[in-house]
Amino acid sequence: MVPIITIDGPSGSGKGTIARLLADLFGLHCLDSGALYRLVGLATERARVDPSMVERLVAIASAMQVEFKDGCVLLDGEDVTLAIRTEQAGNAASRVAAVPEVRDALLQWQRNYAREPGLVADGRDMGTVVFPEAGVKIYLTASPEERARRRYNQLKEKGLDANLSHLVAEIRERDDRDSNRSVAPLLPAPDALVMESTALSIAEVLGQVSSSVLRVYPELAKKGA
Ligand code: C5P
Fold this sequence. Notes:
Blueprint: E1 4-8, H1 15-26, E2 29-32, H2 33-46, H3 54-63, E3 66-69, E4 72-75, E5 78-79, H4 87-96, H5 100-111, E6 119-123, H6 126-130, E7 136-141, H7 144-157, H8 164-180, E8 193-196, H9 202-216
Parallel strand pairs: 1-6, 1-7, 2-6, 7-8
Antiparallel strand pairs: 3-4, 4-5
Helix pairs in contact: 1-9, 2-4, 3-5, 4-8, 7-8
């Protein structure tokens, strides 16, 4: 089995940033599972399909052609890198992600990313459902206010519209929906290392996570720091 590191946590906890840095550091593949749910959310909205129409949702999730290329995300050949990052797409993602059949449709797709030389996967249920056998499981969190502030800065950097108080409200709403759904709710795996990152810098989180990785997968030291 290849090395698998899962990083789960709520929206804006910094898990995407840490996952990418960690994958670069150790030369591993990186799976941004939230992007898959965002793509289904975007495609669903564009097709004007209501999240209650389960068969249509599954058809969309199963048929979409997705490509991750040079930091860009293509949906059926169209560059949707920015379109999937809006709060609207995030909310659409969280609605379709509550549908068990959509999660099933994406399960094997995500598992196929676990190949040589190894994988860093970030999301909500990477350690609990998709890769329960992962050797390192991190659950990264931070206060809703801090997460909203980070999201605000990210959106501004990308030239997208943002309002801090709306973001705090949306983050709380999304946390609530993600934590209380019946399938794969947002929860640390029993064997996850829970890290509260409100007062930590990216470098500090990365340092702690990479030490945990090297304790379990010392062979990765050759590739990384
Ligand atoms: O991580 P990100 O904010 O991009 O995820 C968007 C939404 O996709 C989340 O709010 C969550 O509802 C859903 N998601 C999920 N399971 C994952 C990753 C994301 O349910 N593994």
